[in-house]
Automatic annotation (TrEMBL):
It comes from the Bacteria. This is YciI family protein. Residues 1-107 form the YCII-related domain. It comes from Crenobacter oryzisoli. InterPro entries: Dimeric_a/b-barrel, YCII.
Amino acid sequence: MRFMLIRKADKDTEAGVMPSEQLLAAMGQFMEEMTQAGVLLGGEGLQPTSKGARVKFSGGKPAVLDGPFTETKELIAGYCLIQVRSREEALEWAKRWPPLDANGEVELEIRQLFEADDFGEEFTPELREQEERMRVQAAELANAKR
């Protein structure tokens, strides 16, 4: 089962306040522990919404809204993507988040990703094969650009 640990934004992340050396070390240790346990698939911090944009569709037409966005409680500052055996295991990893982050006042959201089997018969063998080809190709192209 794959889960995303979503680190919610706060006034500091939205202001672009960079983490301290101690927090970077603690986050590095946490990520290393997940790597060594074989559960980490990826994770990154995100730039503030002042450097972002939203694309909203109305009547099928896109409109771009540049950041910053005001409701920090609804914003994301970063994420970790993990693969574990259960929701409970995902929660156990989330509970180990470094307490230095946001002076111990951080909020994480845990969300399970859809897997192919979740879509039922509508996700035909042909569509599954197409998705797998796309994933392989995307990984190859990303590696080629490094």
